[in-house]
Amino acid sequence: MAVEVVSYRDLSELKFDKLDAAVTKWKGIKKEFHDIATGRGEGADVVRLESKAAAADWTGANADVSKPFVVEVAREFHDAANEAKSIHKAMDLTRQRMHKHQSDLRRAVEDIQSDGLIVTSDGTVTDSMCYADEAKQKLSDKKVPGRRNPHREDTEGSGVEPACPGRRAAPAGAGRA
Prior knowledge:
Residues 134-177 are annotated as: Disordered. By secondary structure, the chain is mainly α.
């Protein structure tokens, strides 16, 4: 089975509204099942049901079937309470981890941007390629295969590659070693 990796865009744009609502709902379900299974709630509870069934002196054709059935239903509520607790815990832990990962990602992007680098919408990190120092700019203007300057609008075949915003365009090949 192939493992699917969360993309930069998916994590950076992740909205938690639906997950938060689901975690809250499962917290309520967990409490309801716990209350029913332990007898701590105000409504029906299987503790009382189980004790009444155990103390009952049932006779007749269904007595041998009904009593064990009621006891089994009580046990299933205990199991359901444990399942609800596990589901809530897994969802809450997932939410906490995703919040942390998104926060870590945002902090990393801020650190990268503070170093003068650009993070594109797909998570690619690139040098801004705009320098006040002409020597650095000439080095930066060397075309690196696969690297795209988001500040430039390359015009294929025109012989002119626009420079950084506010700078005059340089002819193709100018300043390249």
